[in-house]
Design goal:
By secondary structure, the protein is α/β, with parallel strands linked by helices. It is globular, with a radius of gyration of 21 Å. 45% of the residues lie in helices and 16% in strands. The protein has two domains: 6-190 and 366-378, Glycogen Phosphorylase B (Rossmann fold, 3-Layer(aba) Sandwich), CATH 3.40.50; 193-364, 3-Layer(aba) Sandwich (Rossmann fold), CATH 3.40.50. It has helices at residues 17-31, 67-75, 79-106, 117-126, 145-154, 166-175, 193-201, 223-233, 251-258, 271-280, 295-302, 316-319, 334-346, 348-361, 367-378; strands spanning 6-10, 36-40, 56-59, 110-114, 131-136, 160-163, 183-186, 210-214, 241-245, 263-267, 283-286, 307-310, 326-329. The N and C termini lie close together (10 Å). A seven-stranded parallel β-sheet has the order 3-2-1-4-5-6-7, with helices on both faces.
Length: 379
């Protein structure tokens, strides 16, 4: 049977969980013989994550997001600059949706996998009848009323709506009209074989007294509450340090909040180096307000790191078994979070025991199982 051409939408191919997921899926489909094209709205840099040689990347605009420039101008009360940046952002927004719409309209056959909520809407409206229309969400929160109404109205013409977790699938299914053509499916993420091999290749060393956290330095990742928790915990553990890997708009604010306590901000570093640090550290800490299906937890668990995370509606609960592979803490319960973190810092044997259980627990998220689930949708 001839393999169908798969087109995948992307905003950019810089650092990020959604971007890693896009690259992993593109690689997996290409390895199974599918022609794969990624439509990428922005070219912020060359792809951060490895791509199979046969995967084609088409960059659709010469634009770059200007949200930070707009916010900076507002903060500094540079009203003329803010006005100009605001008008520029309107043009960027128009073009980014227009180019995706034009690409979708031009395809007569194959599979289009859209990976953003707004792309799903465009796909549902403008794809031709010979195209398999698959919308995907990396959205990590439960759908609010406005979004639920929008999805229920706009997504009914998709063939499939793929969610990262079963709880989100159930919720999405309730949103859809009962006579809706679209089927809601849950398919999680997986780690590339190459990542598994790299983790195995990192020499086992004595674990250092490091609490590790990785992510974009933006509000939804909740790094400010990690630093606040660390301020309470660190005085009792003077030999330990917190290492935060990643960069973003909130970096200066977070560094100021950290002050003199033992926190190292590495900025963005090579993925191989992230994996090395995961094999060196002792505990992984997550304080996000929202998550989808976090790759970083898959990596941390595979590196045998016990996890302390807030039990936000989706994400950590899919990958962490409370009391066995780490600790899930009720959201916003900072005192409990600190207590669980201190328990691990005091018990290296517990860290080791939980880390080994965590590695075993996430083994079910294999590349083969995940790609098999996707491939069933194509025919």
């Amino acid at each position: 049977m001839e393999k169908r051409h798969i087109y995948i939408t992307a905003l950019h191919l810089y650092h990020g969980g959604a971007e890693m997921a896009i690259c992993n899926l593109a690689n997996g489909f290409a390895e199974r013989g599918y022609p794969v094209t990624i439509w990428c709205v922005y070219k912020l840099c060359e792809p951060v994550y490895r791509l199979h040689p046969s995967v084609d990347v088409e960059y659709l605009t010469g634009d770059k997001p200007n949200r930070q420039e707009f916010l900076t101008a507002l903060r500094k009360c540079h009203l003329l600059t803010a006005f100009r940046e605001g008008m520029r952002s309107v043009g960027i927004l128009y073009r980014k949706n227009r180019v995706i719409m034009n690409k979708i309209r031009a395809v007569k056959a194959g599979v289009i996998l859209s990976t953003r909520l707004e792309h799903n809407r465009i796909l549902a409206r403008y794809a031709q009848s010979g195209v398999l229309k698959i919308g995907q969400s990396h959205y990590g929160e439960h759908f609010d009323k406005r979004l639920a109404k929008w999805i229920g109205r706009e997504y009914i013409y998709l063939d499939y709506f793929v969610l990262l977790t079963e709880s989100l699938r159930v919720e999405a299914e309730k949103i859809m009209r009962k006579d809706c053509h679209c089927k809601c499916i849950s398919i999680g993420n997986y780690l590339e074989d190459e990542v598994q091999k790299k983790l195995q290749a990192v020499k086992d060393v004595e674990r250092e007294k490091i609490v590790l956290s990785v992510g974009r330095l933006s509000p939804e990742k909740g790094f400010e509450r990690l630093i606040c928790a660390w301020k309470k915990v660190s005085p009792n553990f003077p030999q330990w340090k917190l290492v935060i890997i990643g960069d973003g708009a909130e970096r200066a604010k977070l560094e100021a909040l950290a002050g003199e306590i033992r926190v190292t901000f590495t900025g963005n570093i090579a993925h191989d180096r992230v994996l090395e640090l995961m094999k060196q550290g002792s505990v992984y800490a997550m304080t996000s307000y929202t998550e989808g299906f976090p790759y970083v937890l898959l990596e941390a668990c595979n590196a045998e790191l016990p996890v302390v995370a807030y039990d936000v509606p989706t994400g950590p609960g899919e990958l962490v078994r409370d009391g066995e592979t780490g600790f899930l803490v009720p959201d916003h319960a900072e005192d409990i979070y600190c207590a669980r973190l201190e328990k691990l810092l005091r018990n290296p044997d517990l860290c080791q025991k939980m880390g080994k259980k965590g590695k075993k627990y996430v083994e079910r998220f294999t590349k083969q199982n995940t790609l098999d689930q996707w491939e069933k949708l194509f025919y």
